[in-house]
Specification:
This protein is of the alpha+beta class. The protein folds into three domains: 3-61, no CATH class; 66-138, no CATH class; 144-235, no CATH class. It is built from eleven helices and five strands. The chain has helices at residues 3-16, 24-31, 46-52, 66-80, 86-95, 102-105, 111-124, 129-135, 177-187, 203-213, 228-235; strands spanning 158-165, 168-174, 192-200, 218-220, 223-224. Helix 4 crosses helix 7 (111-124) and helix 7 packs antiparallel against helix 8.
């Protein structure tokens, strides 16, 4: 067995494992390269092989770092503006040598399980509201709450809602304001209250109107520090 071949396999399998080299037994299982192929021939111990491949000795013994994969996924979500598909993960790996392989991300579970992990991470860290918005709908089942808000006869109708959590208010849009409140109630650390909803045939435009009206009170994303009169102004509208 050629020494360079073994080193290349160490690098390849480490990349697929989130840049964490495999332990000696796992490496043998994954590659078919046995202990007798290198021990006493190229290296006296496995940590020497790991070091020569460019990794710190004993690094392979470190636990799987879930946060590393979450951070990488968040970077890609922000880059493409959506939750990545398998093909998009493969393309990113091909174009970015620092990005873990698609195979490595399988450790996080299926698409829904990945979304759950990312949402929990977002709730524990700041300035990730844009990522939260993308990942929330991925694991909230459509049948978890009755969608009584939707008028099946008018496809374009929706709602612009005002919700309160802690000191701040969220202005957003949804086909079902009640379902959206349910989603946020599950995920946000503080209690979520649906204050009011405006039925509209132009959810995008009406949401933009209220965002612009309260622009000077925006805290982050769709969250605002509204006053009592601001809330009353919103609640006066039942349809726009």
């Amino acid at each position: 067995m050629d020494k360079e071949c073994i080193i290349n396999e160490i690098k390849r399998t480490a990349k697929e494992n989130g840049e964490v080299p495999l332990g000696v037994r796992k490496f043998a299982s994954e590659t078919g390269i046995k202990l007798y192929d290198w021990l006493g021939i190229y290296w006296a111990k496995w940590s020497d092989a790991i070091k020569e491949a460019g990794y710190e000795p004993n690094m392979f013994q470190q636990p799987y770092d879930n946060d590393l994969f979450i951070k990488k996924l968040i970077e890609l979500i922000r880059e493409i503006g959506k939750f990545p598909t398998r093909s998009e993960l493969l393309l990113k790996t091909r174009n970015d040598k620092t990005f873990p392989s698609e195979k490595a991300f399988r450790r996080m579970g299926n698409k829904k399980e990945k979304a759950i992990k990312i949402v929990k991470y977002c709730n524990e860290h700041g300035d990730l509201g844009d990522v939260l918005e993308i990942c929330l709908p991925l694991y909230i089942s459509e049948n978890q709450i009755k969608d009584s808000d939707i008028d099946n006869n008018v496809e374009n109708f929706g709602f612009v809602y005002l919700m309160k959590s802690g000191k701040h208010y969220k202005i957003g849009r949804s086909s079902s304001a009640d379902r959206r409140a349910y989603e946020l109630k599950i995920l946000l650390p503080e209690k979520v209250e649906l204050v009011h909803k405006i039925r509209t045939d132009d959810p995008v435009g009406i949401e933009a109107y209220w965002h612009k009206r309260f622009e000077d009170k925006r805290k982050s994303g769709e969250w605002f520090a509204l006053t009592g009169p601001d809330v009353k102004a919103f609640k006066r509208r039942k349809f726009m």
